[in-house]
Amino acid sequence: MTEPLLFSIAQGVLGKIASPALQEAVAIYCVEDQIHELKKTLTAITAVLLDVEEQQAKNHHLQLWLRWVRDVLYDAEDVLDELECEVLRKRVISRYGGIKKKVHRFFSISNPLILRAKISHKIKEIRETLSKISIEKNRFDLNERSVDNGVVHLRSREMTYSFTNKLDVVGRESDKQKIIEILMQPNGKNLSVIPIVGIGGIGKTALAKLVYNDDRVKEQFKSRLWVCVPEDFDFKKTIDGIIKDATGQSLSNLDIQQSRTILRDTIKDKKFLLVLDDVWSNDRGRWEELKALLTEGASGSKIIVTTRNSEVGSIMGTHPAHYLKGLSQEDSMTLFKKWALDQKEKQPRPDLLNVGNDIVKKCQGVPLLVKTMGSLLYTKDKEWYWAHIRDSEIWKLMEEKGTLCWCLNLAMIIYRPT
User: Fold this and answer.
1) Domain carrying residue 225
2) Residues 188 and 311 in one domain
3) I want to staple 3 with a disulfide (CB 3.0 to 4.6 A). Which of 30, 53, 126, 340 is the partner?
């Protein structure tokens, strides 16, 4: 098992804990405290799993530790699945069950009292094992990633930039035109904010770049600014990022009051387009504070926000969010060919194209995953290798666990024949 896959399993367990069905089961069988402690400990372990993957090849003790984690994660999955199944069975029984069956079930393992004792005992064992695992991880020098509601965010992430290669983007012309139409609309003295919302890897940043670099937009907005927002929406860092993009000056040595003053002076009476890329935080207070500063710009100024979180779009947007959907199969295949095939070849091999078409279908229209798969296969010309990628069990896991979004950046490691 590759350890990014182990990481995805841990993410899946955390996601299951947060699911409505599991929360219903937890309430029915009164195991809130046990589940809370389980989640707390598992979160601490999950936060280091990606770093473990990077180090474990050189450390035999880490490899053993990971096997320990793997075993207990499978146990945790089994217990949570059992809880969910019991809730589903209760729903069926309440609708279709008869008196005799209910009497029989009272003496069965499905009786709530018996099941609660059984589940509590299992969870206790798992929690105790996880506690030992968590203590053991302190022996290793591991970097943590922050974990929020089952989603791990990297503390250090790649900053985006405004340049784009139009040849790398397909199937987004209609989306681009819709955003530009909004940008061209007069809005009086109000500051307009257009959210672009979609799952990770779907192409929100790519779409924003297409709009940002369009000639009509350049003509409409003489001042165009691009900032990748810090994950925690750090107010000063965001302000400094806007100033740096506008002036080329780094002002990290200034205090917050000085930065606020410079931002006002920088945008005052200027009609600007600002892209706030990859916003995670739904802290409305910070957004309102930043918006108050940005209103110093001239009438007609606009802001584009890209985010995975529809709540963020609702908080920040003055226009309805533009929800970005997956690419069509045809557009996905066009993108795949650019990344998987040598463009110098006039006649791509039909056998590879047939398998590639199946792989692209499994990517569900997510451009980042399509490009990742294409890059992986670019130097491979064996049909059996492509078939191995197509038939990998990981696709099934991704569908069952809903892990498509956060498996994207791990795909290069996961899809490797053994």
Assistant:
1) 166-323
2) yes
3) 53
